[in-house]
Amino acid sequence: PARADAPEPLCDWLLSLGRAAQAQAERDFPRAEVEARRALRARPRGPAAARASAALGLALLALDEPAHAAEALEVALGSPIPARLHLAAARAEALLAAGDAPHAARLFGEASRAGELALSRTAALREAQALLAAGLAPEAVPLLEALVRRAPDPATAAPARLALAQGQRALRQDELAVGTLRALWLELPDRP
Known about the structure:
Helices cover 77% and strands 0% of the residues. It is built from ten helices and no strands. The chain is mainly α and 192 residues long.
């Protein structure tokens, strides 16, 4: 017969993963990190570890530890796991915050081509912004021009238009940048 106080890795993993998710929902990210680490210790390999690593990466990203978050999310993405696109976008955010804009742009680009998900539209803008951060304005500007053209309304186009002006400035297209900013101001004069 098993002892009552014997460790039960599967039970510990499930309980800790559930607690990590609840802590995330309550925006208690330090507790989410602790619980995710506990889940990872309970099941350190395979798909169970990938799910624990995903929870850990999301908690670390929220705690503004982007390098560690990117590492944990990379581990999570190495295994078949649900919500891969969302985790890839989270890893891209972590990489961008950690200063690895070129790799972030690649991941955002993959997520942007994922179909008609809301994530795809956001990822397209983030890809262009990461390209700008990487000093790749010639690649970013055409993407931003397309985003501005496709936007259903001025408010949706505003972040892309602002990034487009930054890209145009980086390319020393100052008159175009002024025109882009002027158009933004004319479309949304009440938003500073």
